[in-house]
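note to self — DONT lose this again. spent like an hour looking for the file last time. sequence + predicted structure for the chain T wanted, 609 res
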Amino acid sequence: MTSAIRCETHDEVPFSREAVWAVLSDTEWVLSALGLPPGKYGFQPLPEGGSRVTGRAKFHGLAARWEELPFEWRAPDFYRGRRLFSNGPLKEGSLEVELRQSGTGQTRIVIRCELVPRGFWGKLLAKHLVRAVAQRRIEWIIAQVRGFLRGEKKTLWPESAVHPVAEELFRAKLAELTAAGQPADLVGRLAEFLRQSPDTELSLIQPLAVARVWKRDQWEVLRLFLRAAKCGLLELRWRVLCPNCRASRPPPIASLSQVPRAGLCAVCRAGFEVQFDRSLELSFAVNPAVRPLEHREFSLAGPGSQRHVLSQTLLGAGQRKAWMLPELTWPLRLRSPQVKQPVNLRPEDAPTQLFQPVIVCELEHFLVRYEYGATRDYAVQVLNPNAFPVLLALEEMEWSSELLTAARATNWQEFRDLFPAEVVSSSEPMPAGCQAVVFTSLRGCTALYESMGDAAGHAVVQNHFRVLAEAVRAHHGAVVKTMGDGLMAVFSQVQEGLAAVGQMHERLPEANPNPSLSARLWLKSSLHAGPCLAVNADGSLDFVGATVNLAARMVECCQGGDLAVSDEVYQQAATREFVARVGKAAEARELKMGGLEAAQKVWRVNLVA
């Protein structure tokens, strides 16, 4: 039996485990820094669910093929990965990174590498790699982590490819961006980012994550990126995400109209409907004419690319073992590609000193039972009764706040103004998830026209649309369309819609420069939130469905200077806080809609004295 050749390095850094984990969990960087070559990866569907991941690459001229077993980890304690080679000088290779708290603000880093050689030449190569190369590389990695966290190094990827920009075109695009009114300091930050970042960081740019790093307002940075895409410095990239495992393997899509309505995840094999507010993300990439990029992949599905997964473990066929979980201080979701239904684990499901949960991985669902006996920390027993391995992932139920969904992006007037052609396919309406829909109408238009005349009255109505559109834009919504003397607007969050409506009523008098010469205008408004369908309406992005219908009809409950909200919206904390701020009591009404037997409960709130 061939013995494994091992390498282990220990070192301490003056940073918390969480800070170190945020860096070292990036397995793309770690494997690259270890000197491994980029690979080409494929997925083979498994009959029991999920996929088998395979890779191939050339290393010092030698072709290698392998199966990449799923990473196992518990953030921020450890992770380990393993490759099983089908050819070449090695049988197996594994990497383990462990972080131990060694004092206040101190972390002990332990990195282990293990290679199982195949034959004499494999043993010779493994010894050389581990003892002569891997040891030095690991020490260099730890030095990079230390320097990066101290702020002494701008990037972790100094050895990665950094293709130069096309200088003349680059400068011209930056000048165009500045001429479009973008702040000079932000344009400078973007220029530095695009010029100096490794190729690996510029093929998938998430603007909200960039805003966090730059410590700037998210909407300010998003506006910069949209303007940069408009002038050709960047390109829009739509990514379809699996709502089950949140992976994205298909190539990014250049236009919203090309996004399919349904998808099949290559990783977990789950079929799904693409949804605007959940499984479709807008990201950016540098325009290849400005700077060419070399796309390389060093690993798949490591902990750094799945930060919503707090712990992941692989159970062999028929295996039972203890699984140390993160502390259950809030509900988490347990899922598996081999188990059809996930289960939510709540704080009350945590192990106690007397009872230990046992999670049985059955084909249809997880069975959670309790056995009497002491437990160590947050260990639970997990049992796989099946004749095949089962992968378990414990994850956050909420999606990352840095995910810029298609709904969030297209619901902003700034996006619609810059990219009016970005609409869904005319033949593929798409579920848009929960949207906050606002309708308005004017009371007093007839009297206005009679007192001012047609031309002057029309000018006031158009001014009123300008005032309303400014309120919508200011609160990150979008005007979907205008109809007569009213409009329809959409928002991603109820509180944004409420804030916009409040501003509309407050600033409506600005629409009429000579109020003493005309009848007074009163704004009627309504807000409802719920699932919608995104459609292509003659080349414009529109929304339809029961939510939109109810929001439109609720305006009938208004008298002027008021807002009508559905009962579902009224019960939300954001609405109660809004009503409390305006200092007006809400009154309940009933709205009878054709085709529905039960009347709809609507709450009316006066917003103008």
